[in-house]
Amino acid sequence: MSQDQEIRIRKYAVEGLVRALEEFEITTMIVGPDTVTAFDKSGLSQSITLRWQEGMLMWCWLWPGRKDGDVDAEAMVMVEQIGEAARRIRDVISVTADRAR
Question: Residue 94's pLDDT is what?
Answer without folding.
Answer: 81
